[in-house]
Write a structure and sequence with these properties.
homodimer, 123 residues, alpha+beta, 3-stranded antiparallel β-sheet, 5 helices, 3 strands, DNA-binding
Chain lengths: 123, 123
Amino acid sequence: MLVHNGYMKLLPVLEPAADEACCAPAGMPALGAEEAKQKALVFKALADPNRLRLLSIVKAEASGASCVCDLTGPLDLGQPTVSHHLKILVAAGLLHREKRGTWAYYSLVPGALEKTAGLLATL
Amino acid sequence: MLVHNGYMKLLPVLEPAADEACCAPAGMPALGAEEAKQKALVFKALADPNRLRLLSIVKAEASGASCVCDLTGPLDLGQPTVSHHLKILVAAGLLHREKRGTWAYYSLVPGALEKTAGLLATL
DNA sequence: CATCTATATTGATGATCGTCAATGTTGGTG
DNA sequence: CACCAACATTGACGATCATCAATATAGATG
C-alpha cells in the first residue's frame, strides 16, 4: 500500500517521481454503509419542495398542530398527495400524527429538526 | 364535541355560515415555492447513502482534499458513478473541485454543512 | 340505519434517479 | 509523435418517486 496523505498538501506539482502518487489505501469508509443508508432516509424525506413547505407550515402554526385540510390549500396539491407526503415525514421521524375525531393533526416531533441538523455535523 | 382549533385565534370576520370546523389559514405558504425548491436541491444531494459516504470520506481526510481514486475504492461503485455523485455534490455547493495535473481534488466547501444545517432552523 | 366529512389507501402513469459499459477528454510521459 | 493514466461524459436500463383519480375507511350526525 502506498500512502500519500499528510504530506503533499502544501507542495503543488512537485512529486518528482517514481511511484504513483494518488490513491490512499482504501481502508474504512469513515461512514458505514448501513449508517449512511439510515441517515439518507431522513434527507430523502427533506428532498422534496412540497414536503419542506409542509414542515414549514406545521412549524409556523401557533397551536403547534395542523390538520390535513390546513395543509392542502396552501400547496397546490390534491389531498391524497398531501396525505402521502405527510406519511413520509412521519416515517422519517420528523412529524407526529394524532387523530382527534375525524381530523388528523400533525405536529413537529420535538427536537427532530435539531437532531437532523446534527447529522451533518457528525458526518 | 369537536374541540378543534382551540379557540381559533379569535378570528373576527364574517364567515357566513355556522360552518366552523377546520381549515382556517389557506393564506401564506410560510415557505415560498421557489425557496422550497432551492432548499430541496441541497437535501436532494444529501439523500443518497453513497453521497453521504463521499462527504464523510472527504471530511475525514486530513489534508482536506481527496482525489477521485481515493473515493472509488471504499465505496463499492464504479469510477463513472463516483464522478457523477461528486458532480451533484459540487452543484449543490457542498464540495469544491480543483484540478491538479491529472488528478481532481475534492474538498468540503467551508461552512457549507453548517449552512445546510441552518436551513433546517429557518424552515 | 343512512349519510356526510375528513383522511387514508390503491393503482396507474410519467418523471427522475442510480448505476454501469463504453467512449471522450485532458494532462503527463517516453 | 504515440501512449497511458485520471477523470468526465454519454446512453441505456431498471428502480424509485410524485402525482392524480378512484375508492376505501372511520368517525360524526341526522
